[in-house]
Amino acid sequence: MKAILTGMNGTVAPVVAETLQRHGIEGIAWNREQVSTTNEEEMREFIERIRPDYFLHIGMGAVKWAETLARLCGEAKIPFLFTSTVSIFSDEVTGPISPDTLPDAEDDYGKYKRECERAIMNANPGAQIVRLGWQIGDEAGSNNMMDYFTNEMKQRGVIQASEHWYPSCSFLVDTADALFEILTKRGPGIYQLNGNANYSLYDIAVGLKELHDTDWQIECTDEPKRDNRMIDSSVSIRPISKHLNLQTK
Which protein family is it in (predicted)? Predict the structure, then answer.
């Protein structure tokens, strides 16, 4: 079996490709230097040549690209999964955020992902849209929480983390496992993945410091006061507490 993945130079897609490989599915990267993201005939030819069993659109790109990929996969009856984000919700939305909560973000990134979701669902009602939280990797070097904390230490000499900010987040390996489960065993629709039930950003920073035995200096702050936690009873993902030594709340 084969799956085409976009975003293989990013944070999530390479980990998803490893998970697919463990399940006997060969991951094939969409190389933008070799395959157009604007020429529909080139896109169609590539998909027809590979004849994938699945398509995962994880990379960034124009809304039109996402729409075209979704439509082409719909026409070819290829299961299509798009990774969206909790950032489609503004900070005015307070968790728990259910899948039917109205997206309202107006910043560039949030609005972009909102437009992608809308275009994909219009082009392919059989698509799967999976909203992700902040991803937790093993180290700095990519766009994940470890990278953020490491850079904060380098730039400020201290990590300021609010005890009143409850982010949607999950470990990358758990996100990949959950995406595989949705892709292969769930139907069309909108899904939300969050492994953080009740821990603040401060709690998580302390837990990651202990897990990786770092020399981080962590300062507990009162701001921001935010609850970005998504919920979705139709899917499950491994809780972050399974990785971190966090006090039960």
Answer: Belongs to the dTDP-4-dehydrorhamnose reductase family.
Q: In whole numbers, what is the pLDDT of the chain averaged over residues?
A: 96
Residues 32, 39 contacting (CB under 8 angstroms): no
Closest of 133, 167, 150 to residue 218, by C-alpha: 150
Q: Is the alpha carbon torsion for 10, 193, 195, 3 positive or negative?
A: negative
> 147 burial class (0-12, 13-18, 19+ CB within 10 angstroms)?
middle
Quote the distance between the C-alpha of residue 4 and its chain's center. Answer: 17
Helix axes 13-22, 172-185, angle to 10 degrees: 60
In the DSSP assignment, the letter for residue 213 is T
Q: CA-CA distance, 140 to 180, in Å (whole number)?
A: 25
> E strands, the chain, where?
2-6, 26-29, 54-57, 80-85, 128-132, 134-136, 159-162, 165-166, 169-171, 189-193, 218-221, 226-227
Query: Which tokens go with 111?
Result: 């609005």
pLDDT tens digits, residue range 92-150? Answer: 999 899 999 999 999 999 999 999 999 999 999 999 999 999 999 988 777 799 999 99
Whole-number Å distance between alpha carbons of 101 and 84: 14
How far is it between the farthest Cα atoms of the chain?
55
